[in-house]
Specification:
485 residues; alpha+beta; seven-stranded mixed beta sheet; 12 helices; globular
């Protein structure tokens, strides 16, 4: 029965591939940039997301994480058509990713994609986070493995040497690089640009289990379990090498499986989560309707091919400072591990937002050292607000004479700043200036004095200042330069 079921699926998949290779011919007219530079291209049957930005903090090869257009592909095709390749393909493939922990699992994907950037361990974090609750994904005792069943229909590739990047960038991208902050650039364009992608349909099956502490081969065992589930539940066995034994399941507890389809008709799409702790009670789920619905009009991004993405900071050739700042922001953002109440990051090159609170600690003695609460300022400095006991790694509640940060409030960045010379030590003095009856926070660094205006109570809330702070009085602030919080 299982053999018959697989042959039926194989036939339907091949039929879907064969019947959907007919694409409408479209004239190649240069795309026009618009001020509303939002992704509209995914699923257009023409260029799809090739040349568009992508946020690799999101899920692996999911069109939902596509961003705004960076390379003008129509211009490339018109002026230098050899720089663009489109190939119609008829493939079924299976990709397996596994890791003993969530971090190792994501590293496996990163290695496959060759995303570029040193030390990027936070890439594709949503590949796990979007499928399980955050307290589980941050628990490194869980093992992850995924089974990606791909029906590949079309491959799009840009062949642009680095010296020609600027020639084919959209006007909007060039202008936005000059006028927007690194954070705004990433929000609009993502972290990378897609240059080699595969379109088709995909079935994603993600396994999670908590292994015995003494299990040395967690990743291999997790891989065996997801292959067994793919065959048992969905009848998938493209390579004929799926695991047929349930022996590895006994090595794990809290086992579950999430699955979803991408591409094909939305009316036949399926997604859910299953408890598979007992492999003998796994259900059987039919894929026939979804497979038979796949055609050239509903294919989607299914794979980012090796060397298929370029960091967007590598596209900036005429502004080294801007490129360096953007790289610094992206690498810091990507390498942040999100936990329930705290963000932990090696923030030696962090670019905090104005007013952002940080917990600074001594890199060499963490987590036993005392921790200082710093607030970033507009001039890339830091105001010291309080000191807290560092023996509690999670710092469930910060309650000092100046600020109060309850445990459930998040995030606050906990960081090891390798260059602390720029932060401003504070007198922690809140005063009312009798000249104008306005409130200020006074700071001092050596002989330099600064007064930060507290415009209203919303400022107190924004920076977690206590509402019952006792203000002193000063006659003037002649010795201080005035800044605004």
């Amino acid at each position: 029965m299982k053999q018959s079921k697989f042959l039926t699926y194989f036939f339907l998949a091949m039929l879907a591939i064969g019947c959907s290779n007919d694409y409408d011919e479209q004239t190649n007219k240069p795309d026009q940039d618009t001020t509303a530079n939002i992704t509209k291209s995914a699923g257009d049957g023409k260029y799809d997301l090739i040349g568009y930005g992508y946020d690799i903090k999101g899920e692996y090869a999911n069109a939902s994480y596509g961003k705004s257009k960076i390379f003008d592909v129509s211009k490339i095709v018109q002026l230098d058509p050899n720089r663009f390749e489109e190939s119609l393909i008829n493939n079924q493939t299976v990709e397996l990713f596994a890791g003993s922990t969530a971090t190792e699992y994501k590293k496996n994907i990163i290695t496959k994609v060759s995303a570029g950037g040193d030390g990027f361990f936070g890439l594709f974090k949503a590949s796990v986070n979007a499928n399980f609750t955050q307290d589980i994904t941050n628990n490194e005792s869980f093992t992850y493995a995924s089974y990606e069943f791909n029906i590949e229909k079309k491959e799009l590739k840009l062949l642009i040497p680095a010296e020609d990047y600027n020639r084919f960038l959209t006007i909007n991208f060039k202008e936005d690089i000059e006028r927007l902050s690194p954070k705004e650039i990433v929000q609009l364009y993502g972290t990378h640009v897609l240059t080699n992608i595969t379109l088709g349909a995909r079935m994603n099956i993600l396994y999670r289990g908590k292994a015995q502490s003494n299990l040395a081969t967690k990743a291999n065992s997790g891989s065996a379990n997801v292959k067994f589930a793919a065959g048992k539940i969905f009848g998938l066995d493209v390579s004929g090498s799926n695991n047929t034994s349930t022996s590895e399941f006994s090595k794990f507890t809290q086992q579950s499986l999430t699955y979803k389809t991408m591409g094909g008709s939305t009316f036949t799409a399926i997604s859910s989560m299953l408890d598979i702790t007992n492999p003998n009670l796994m259900p059987q789920i039919e894929l026939g309707n979804w497979l038979s619905s796949i055609n050239g009009n509903n294919i989607t991004l299914t794979k980012i091919n090796p060397q298929g993405i370029i960091p967007i900071y590598n596209l900036i050739s005429d502004n080294d400072i801007k490129a360096a700042n953007l790289k610094k922001y992206i690498e810091t953002d990507i390498n942040t591990i999100y936990t329930k109440s705290t963000e932990y990051t090696d923030a030696g090159s962090i670019i905090p937002e104005d007013g952002q609170l940080l917990i600074h600690y001594d890199c060499s003695t963490f987590p036993t050292t005392q921790k200082q609460i710093l607030m970033s300022t507009k001039n890339n400095g830091y105001i010291h607000l309080a000191t807290v006991d560092g023996t509690n790694n999670s710092i469930p509640n910060i309650n000092t004479s100046v600020i109060n940060i309850p445990a459930q409030q998040a995030p606050i960045i906990q960081s090891c700043l390798t260059n602390i010379t720029s932060w401003e030590t504070s007198q922690n003095t809140f005063v009312i200036n009798s000249e104008n009856n306005k409130k200020y926070l006074l700071t001092r660094k050596g002989n330099v004095k600064k007064a930060y205006l507290i415009n209203n109570n919303n400022v107190l809330i924004k920076y977690n200042f206590k509402s019952n702070i006792i203000y002193g009085t000063v006659n003037n602030l002649d010795d201080y330069t005035i800044h605004i919080l």
